[in-house]
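Long-time lurker. I teach an intro course on protein structure, and each term I like to show students one example going from raw sequence to a predicted 3D structure in token notation. This year I'd like something fresh instead of my usual example. Would anyone be willing to generate the tokens for the chain below so I can use it in lecture? Attribution to the forum is fine with me.
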Amino acid sequence: MQENILKIQNLTKIYHDKSSETLAISNLNIDVRDKEILAIVGPSGCGKSTLLGILTGIIPKSSGKIIFNGRKKIGYMLQTDCLMPWRTILENALIGLEINKKKTKENIKKVNDLLDKYGLHDFKNKYPNSLSGGMRQRVALIRTLATNPDILLLDEPYSALDYQTRLALSDDLYKIIKDEGKTAIMITHDIAEAVSMASRVIVLTKRPCQIKNVYEIKFENSALPTENRKAKEFNHYYDMIWRDLDVHL
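-- Reply from a regular --
Happy to contribute to a lecture. Here you go:
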């Protein structure tokens, strides 16, 4: 059985303004397993992105506990690639190391190796405007991996891409996460994306978000996401999750 790398216990988030308060998350409990891809789906505005913000420390929690099992370095991949157009691909991939003052020869070599390994060797000295949307997101993931995080937070990483590119990138991201032995928590509005990529899918209720259901995703012949979409089990999981949702995604 996989060990837990992260425990979220009785997490609550309340937003306050001058005249009212909004309960966004109510007593949420989630265990995250080492080296799993955990997908979280739920209605728009239910608190999914708030949860990721709390895990990064960007958003303060109101109450509850976030417990890391000895490893708490987090990498956050946003919905857009946020590549700087005046920097080369290699320079963009090194930004996190520069910010953390860890741009050593060893770490620069590691980033170069990642770019080579995942098909970006010929683009290292080019600029972002010469890359496709899927390639830009691959660079964004390598930039995130460069700091060697224990947990990757993926906030709808395909939302800005067209359908065909999303499918191809889901295979790319899946292979990279598995090859590098990382744990990932992925927020998505796309049920098919969640079922095809994740080992578990958590369905949240509408705000204030709580857990409505948890699905262990098991394919007889587990493969890349594009292949998992063709598996006989895929529609079974898709239909159950769709019925769980309070509103259309």
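Some talking points for your students: The chain is about 35% helix and 25% strand. The CA atoms of residues 4 and 33 lie 4 Å apart.
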